[in-house]
Amino acid sequence: MRRTLSVDLGSPDLRMRAIHFVVGQSMCFLTLFVLTASGLLSAQNQESPVAEQTSNTVGRGVNYLANYLNMAGSLKASDFRPLSQRERTSIYLKTMVNPLGYAKAGFSAGIDQWKDKPAEWEQGGSGYGKRFGNILGQYSIQRTVTFGLASALHEDNRYFNSGKKGLWPRSGYALVSGILSRHDDGTRHVSISQVGGVAAGAFLSRLWQPSSTNSAGDGAVSFGISMASNVGFGVMKEFLPDIGRAITKKRAKAAHH
């Protein structure tokens, strides 16, 4: 049967795929954050050479997490300054060797292996390797194209905390941040580099996938889910510092009792 570009965005199957994707990503990110933050706080509450070494190690983990989530640390929107090309390149190179990227690819490949997706790729080590390579390849294309376009267009896709007060103002800022970038003058526009990178990863990865997942429609579904997750995760990035401060406060209070 001839396959077309037509995609039923309202189909139950697509909705379930989107829900599973977003929930899986959310659980992965939240687990990484809680483990990293908890470990850092535990190390900070100790006073020994071993504790200091542990703190440095976990501190690097926090940096890995911020880099993987493309966050500008704890900087607020009002703290924005344009990146130099050297800084931009450094962030990109760190992203490409970030161990969390490989861990996430391994985690996602395991889920695809369990779901036997795509069915043409066998089970066992060989099938897992194909699934891992597929996810890592798509991620690498996305990040590389985004980096190239952002460099040429002077776009900054890092997430800066809003600095706003209230749940709804902060959430609104976070949601639109998933599709916006900052230019050198600090103004925000639709991120051509972000959209272009996600599209490149979604469609170019069809080239090596089997017939059940290599249509333009499959690429469109992947693109849509990735963009939707970018928008949704903006909310998590906005409130991560609050979670960190709450954990710090709780641990500090417990240490004084």
Structure commentary:
With 257 residues, this protein is mainly alpha-helical. The chain has one domain. Helix content is 68%, strand content 6%. The chain has eight helices and four strands. The strands form two sheets. Strands 1-2 form a two-stranded parallel ribbon. Strands 3-4 form a two-stranded antiparallel ribbon. Strand 3 and strand 4 (188-190) form a beta hairpin. The longest helix is centred in the C-terminal third of the chain and has 40 residues, at 216-255. The chain is globular, with a radius of gyration of 20 Å. The N and C termini lie far apart (69 Å). Mean pLDDT is 83; it is low at 1-10 and 35-48.
Range of helix content: 55-70%
Number of strands: 4
Describe the largest sheet.
Answer: 2 strands, parallel
Which class of secondary structure composition applies to the elements?
mainly alpha
Query: Roughly how many Å is the radius of gyration?
Result: 20 Å
Count of folded domains: 1
